Amino acid sequence: MTPADIAALESELARARARYESATNILVEIYAVLSPPVVTLFDGRVMEFQNPMANVMLRSLSDQIRAIPDRLRAIADAEEAKTKGAGE
How many Cβ atoms are within 10 Å of 51's Cβ, its own excluded? Predict the structure, then answer.
């Protein structure tokens, strides 16, 4: 394997890591909007979080999920532009 091959693989790995981190960040943002799970205490009582802003949170969750394809496309476009800029 030549040094150029290694550099190309390292570059591809860096791009894959950046995509992975971006996708993970998107999912973490969505996870943050979700309500916590129901908790059953040792004595059998059940505690459930009731969000007074449930409608607002659901709208935010829906908007974030719908935006995923556009956000991933923007990341890919930025990578492509960066790659084209580096190749010129």
Answer: 13
Give pairs for 59-66: CB < 8 Å, separation 24+. 60/33, 61/30, 61/33, 61/34, 64/26, 64/29, 64/30, 64/33, 65/30
In the three-class reduction of DSSP (H, G, I as helix; E, B as strand; rest coil), residue 46 is classed as: strand
Element (H, E) at 17: helix 3-33
Report pLDDT digits (tens) over 16-59: 898 899 889 988 888 887 878 899 999 999 999 888 888 888 89
Tokens of 49: 């979080």
Considering the entire predicted model, what is its pTM? 0.63
